[in-house]
Design brief:
Length: 242
């Protein structure tokens, strides 16, 4: 089978792609998918992504942790937002988290409507994810969550890192893949310095969460690959316990 890789640079373009027989990798490296990967790697039973802040409240009587972020900040009244430092073993191990974010969970819900399978990607699980994608008999769409339906640099850089790693195993690449890979090659020796150019980096800097940004740019800290199973994200080899 000839497998293709495509990069969707923003969820606003997702309708242009045929993904019914593809694995979709949702990418929101600053910070939603990084925190999801880290949380699942640290033993969270499941992470349930919901579209709206209000949807979290539907789970308030189940003993789940409720996490809500908008515009980079924790929504008042919720347990935490999408900082990776909230997803440690001590906080989420053995727990189910209900999560909504500005960009990442929106992209995830759009993808799950049509995709064959949906998984989460971040620099934290880059190698584990690529090793798994190499042995799947499916084409891949790398879906960049962007910022409020606009292109962003950080998600595109991660998509380029995946393309660079998978190039030998796949046959067809679209122009977005070529551009993403070229950007990654420019940036890979110092991702943080390159991302000082990005608008989202400046937004996060204003929130004084530089530590989060640096954490999310670490390579291969995690082995977990979160996969959508029903309404929940679980470890690829696990089944949800809700």
């Amino acid at each position: 089978m000839q497998k293709s890789i495509e990069v969707c640079l923003t969820p606003a373009l997702l309708d242009l792609y045929a993904i019914e027989d593809s694995i979709v990798v949702v990418i929101d490296v600053l910070r939603a998918t990084s925190s999801i990967v880290y949380g699942i790697d640290n033993g969270a039973t499941a992470i349930i992504p919901v579209a709206n802040v209000e949807d979290c409240l539907n789970y308030s009587d189940k003993g789940f942790l409720l996490a809500a972020e908008r515009d980079g900040q924790v929504v008042e009244g919720y347990d935490f937002g999408n900082s990776p430092f909230s997803y440690t073993t001590e906080k989420v191990g053995g727990r189910t988290v209900v999560l909504t974010t500005t960009n990442g969970t929106k992209a995830l819900h759009m993808a799950r409507k049509r995709a064959h399978q949906v998984v989460m990607g971040s620099f934290l699980n880059l190698q584990a994810l690529c090793n798994w994608l190499k042995i799947q008999d499916k084409s891949v769409l790398l879906l960049c969550a962007g910022w409020k339906d606009k292109f962003n640099l950080e998600d595109t850089l991660f998509a380029g890192a995946v393309v660079a790693e998978l190039r030998k195993e796949f046959t067809h690449f679209d122009d977005s893949s070529v551009a993403a890979e070229d950007l990654y090659k420019l940036a890979k020796d110092d991702l943080r310095s390159y991302l000082h150019k990005s608008s989202h980096s400046h937004r996060l800097a204003e929130l004084n969460i530089e530590e989060d940004v640096r954490f999310c740019l670490q390579l291969n800290l995690c082995q977990a690959i979160p996969v959508m199973d029903g309404d929940a994200l679980v470890s690829l080899k696990a089944t949800p316990v809700l």
